[in-house]
Write a structure and sequence with these properties.
mainly beta; baseplate structural protein gp8, domain 1; 6-stranded antiparallel β-barrel; 5 helices; elongated
Length: 497
C-alpha cells in the first residue's frame, strides 16, 4: 500500500501543539533540567564528552525524574513556529516556489520536496522573502532586497514576494544559526488573492515571430479563458519567448493575475493568441517550435496569506531563560546535562497540576550540627538508616544540603537494592569531603533562602514537583553546562513534527 505523511499533517500537529499552550483548557508545560552527575557506564551510559542517546522507554522516564534538578513553566509567549534558516547572499542560486515539486520535477538544487528546498531566504535586516522566479536557476545578482511591497517585485534578476519581518522579540528569543521564527504579516495576508497567477515558467523555443501577444489562462479560475480571467503577456524577441519577469516589453509578464485557479494552461495555438489585452483580435506567434508557457499555481489563499503554512512551519521552538537561581529553585552550585519537556506535572504529594512558575525537584535537609563542607556530586550516606544519595548543592551559610537519590548503586541505592530515605537525627557523612552533619529535627518551619522559602518538617523538605507525574514528552542529553549565581542560560528546544 502506497501512502505518505503530508506536509498538511505535519502542520496540523504543530498547530495543535502550539494551540495547546493558549487555548481555554490549555495544557501546562515545563522545561526541566537535570543530571548534575557525570554520564558513566555504571549509570546512564555514555560520557560527558559523548552523551548517551536518550532511550524512549518506561524505565528511562523514571530515571529522568530521579535526576531532575528543577523545572520552569512555559507561557504562550515562549513558543514560536520556526523554519530552517536560509540566509540571503549575493551570487547565490536559490530555488523557486513551484506547486508540483516531486522526484520527477526537482528544484534547481535537486530537492524533491518544496519544503526541503531553498525557495525563501532572510536578509540581514530580518526580512523574509519567497522566491517566485529564480531566472531559470541562475545566481541572484544585485543588491540585498529591502522592499516590503505586498506585490511581487523584481530584484537581482529574481521575482520575490515579501512575506514578513522578524520582530525584535522574535530575533532575541527564537532566531538561531539554524532556524528562523515564522509568522504572518497581516498587511501581506490581506493583499493576497486566492488562486491568482503570479508567475509562469517559460520554455523559450525558437522560430517565433517577434512581437507582443496576449494569451488567456484556461482552467478553473474565475472567468478563465476570457479577458476577465488571468492573462499572460507574451514577449517574443530574437524569435524566442522571453523569460518571465515584471518588465513589460522585455519580459513575459502577468498582465492579469485572475483568481480562483487550482490548475491552468496557456496555449500557443493560433486561435488562443491575441494582439490585444481585451482578447478581441486573434493573431499567431508564427511557425516556431519548442516553446511553452506553464503557469505556477500559488498556495491556497495566495502568496503571503499564511507564512507558517507556505514556508513549511512544521517546527516549533520552545524558549526559556534560566536567570541565576530563579527563586532559589534552580540551584547554581552544580552543572546539568539533560533538558526535558514535561506536560502537566503535579505539585508534590497531590494530583493537582502545578501552575507555579518554577519548581524545585531535589530534596533538602536542614543540618543542625556537624563539621566540614559537603561537596557537589559527592556521595552522602546515613549509616543508621542505610540511606545514600548524591549532593547537588550545599548551602554552608544556611546549612541546607540539597541532594538526589538515583536508582544506581552508591547514587541512591545501597548494596541491598532498597532506596532508603534519610530520616531522624542520624549523622550524614560525605564520602569525599568527610564532612558530617546531623539533621535538625527542630527545623519545623519555613527557612528564608534569599529569594524563596523552604518549609522543613523535622529538618527534611521534599521536592516541589511530584516525581513521575504528568508526561515527559521530549528529552535531550548534552555535554555539561555549568551554572553560576551571576549567570543566565538561554534554552531553546526545536521540535519537528
Amino acid at each position: 500500500m502506497a501512502a505518505i505523511i503530508t506536509e498538511k499533517f505535519r502542520l496540523h500537529n504543530a498547530e495543535q501543539f502550539f494551540e495547546s499552550l493558549s487555548e481555554s483548557s490549555a495544557d501546562t508545560y515545563y522545561i526541566g533540567i537535570g543530571k548534575p552527575i557525570s554520564f558513566t557506564s555504571d549509570t546512564s551510559g555514555g560520557t560527558d564528552l559523548s552523551p548517551p542517546t536518550p532511550v524512549d522507554d518506561v524505565s528511562s522516564e523514571f530515571y529522568l525524574w530521579d535526576s531532575m534538578i528543577a523545572a520552569k513553566k512555559l507561557t504562550s509567549s515562549d513558543v514560536s513556529y520556526v523554519i530552517p534558516r536560509r540566509n540571503w547572499a549575493n551570487s547565490t542560486t536559490y530555488d523557486m516556489y513551484e506547486h508540483n515539486i516531486s522526484s520527477s520535477n526537482t528544484t534547481t538544487s535537486g530537492a524533491t520536496n518544496l519544503y526541503d528546498s531553498t525557495f525563501y531566504f532572510m536578509t540581514s535586516d530580518y526580512k523574509v522573502y519567497k522566491v517566485l522566479d529564480n531566472n531559470g536557476g541562475t545566481n541572484y545578482s544585485g543588491a540585498e532586497p529591502s522592499s516590503t511591497s505586498t506585490a511581487p517585485h523584481a530584484i537581482g534578476g529574481y521575482v520575490l514576494q515579501y512575506m514578513y519581518t522578524l520582530t525584535s522579540s522574535e530575533v532575541a528569543n527564537f532566531l538561531t544559526t539554524d532556524y528562523i521564527p515564522v509568522s504572518t504579516d497581516s498587511t501581506v495576508s490581506a493583499a493576497a488573492t486566492d488562486g491568482a497567477i503570479d508567475s509562469v515558467i517559460v520554455t523559450a523555443g525558437s522560430g517565433y515571430t517577434n512581437g507582443t501577444y496576449y494569451a488567456p489562462v484556461h482552467g478553473d479560475g474565475t472567468s478563465s479563458g476570457t479577458s476577465s480571467g488571468a492573462i499572460i503577456r507574451i514577449t517574443i524577441a530574437s524569435n524566442a519567448i522571453a523569460s518571465f519577469g515584471l518588465t513589460a516589453g522585455t519580459d513575459t509578464t502577468i498582465h492579469a493575475a485572475g483568481a480562483g485557479y487550482t490548475h491552468g494552461t496557456v496555449s500557443l495555438a493560433s486561435n488562443e493568441i491575441y494582439s490585444d489585452a481585451s482578447l478581441s483580435t486573434a493573431t499567431n506567434v508564427g511557425g516556431g517550435s519548442g516553446g511553452a508557457v506553464s503557469v505556477v499555481i500559488g498556495p491556497k489563499e495566495g502568496h503571503g496569506d499564511n507564512a507558517v503554512k507556505e514556508l513549511g512551519g512544521h517546527y516549533v521552538m520552545l524558549h526559556t531563560t534560566l536567570t541565576q537561581a530563579e527563586g532559589d529553585d534552580f540551584l547554581t552550585g552544580n552543572d546539568f546535562r539533560q533538558v526535558s519537556l514535561i506536560e502537566d506535572p503535579y505539585n508534590y504529594g497531590t494530583t493537582t497540576v502545578s501552575t507555579a512558575s518554577t519548581l524545585r525537584s531535589v530534596k533538602a535537609i536542614k543540618l543542625a550540627s556537624g563539621a566540614g563542607t559537603f561537596q557537589a556530586d559527592e556521595k552522602i550516606s546515613q549509616a543508621t538508616t542505610g540511606a545514600v544519595g548524591k549532593v547537588v548543592e550545599y548551602d554552608s551559610t544556611l546549612r541546607i544540603l540539597y541532594y538526589q537519590q538515583e536508582r544506581f548503586a552508591d547514587f541512591g541505592t545501597p548494596s541491598d537494592g532498597n532506596k532508603d530515605a534519610f530520616s531522624g537525627t542520624h549523622t550524614i557523612t560525605g564520602a569525599t569531603s568527610s564532612a558530617t552533619g546531623a539533621p535538625d529535627d527542630g527545623a519545623d518551619s519555613s527557612v528564608d533562602t534569599g529569594d524563596s522559602t523552604i518549609t522543613f518538617t523535622n529538618g527534611f523538605a521534599n521536592e516541589e514537583i511530584e516525581h513521575d507525574s504528568g508526561d515527559i514528552l521530549y528529552t535531550e542529553s548534552r555535554r555539561p553546562i555549568s551554572r553560576a549565581s551571576d549567570q543566565t542560560e538561554d534554552i531553546k528546544l526545536i521540535i519537528e513534527f
